[in-house]
Amino acid sequence: MFAGRYLWWMLMGIGIFMFAALSLDYITWLMIQLSGCGDMAGACEPVLRLISGMLKPACIWTAICMLFMATLLRLHALSLIWFWGPIVAVWFVASTPILLFVAADAAALTQPATLAVLPVALLFLAAFVTYLMFALEDGDILPLAASVPLRLTLHLTAVYGALAGLAFMPELSRIAGTLLDMPALSVVIALAQPYLQTVLTLGTGSMAPAYAVLAAFIAALAACLLPHAAAPQPSRSAIMLRRSRR
Predict the structure, then answer these.
(1) How far is the C-alpha of 131 from the C-alpha of 124, rounded, in Å?
(2) 138 pLDDT band (50/70/90 cuts)?
(3) pTM for the structure as a whole
(4) Based on C-alpha coordinates, what's the Rg of the chain?
(5) Fewer Cβ close by (within 10 Å): the C or N end of the chain?
(6) In the Cβ-directed half-sphere of 103, how many Cα atoms lie within 13 Å?
(7) 107-119 as b/e: b if 16+ CB within 10 A
């Protein structure tokens, strides 16, 4: 998936998510007011069940799946799927609870308390998705193919971000045990998470080490963009010929 198409699908997914989170509640209220069902007890139940119980969750999950699949296809097009695919999958899984929470109460996103507890995995995911929006395939320099130290920094910080996403996801033990039908796995994960949190925070109990690693990850991504910015841009005809061959 090329950068332009990837950007289009990401904007579509974000648009669907924002529509479901911000507009569907107002549409429900407007339909109740226009139909006058509020005057009779229980008369609005079918409308509420249709919009809030079916349409809104369907839009939210469609948007999340669209963002996830578009990112995987973009990674596949850039030949980065084998390492970054599992990392991105973990980031999406760790970010899904906060996305569902925001979808249920969009006003909470403007509250400082909500912003303070945003999962670090969501911040890693946002930085990486932003990087993938650049036209990395139009030049002769491969994406993320910088120097060995820079590439090692990217890999280590990405793995740290994935582990942090799993360690600080309270719902992980319940979700894993339910999906795999293994209650014992839920117990093991619940017992292992505090130890992993201690290791990732260097025993401080603070998220400062995680944010420092995030800053290093963003800096490494920015450094990977410098060769693309300095490289001569191919002509439009060369780009169209390369895409037609693919």
Answers:
(1) 11
(2) low
(3) 0.83
(4) 21
(5) C
(6) 26
(7) eeeeeeeeeeeeb
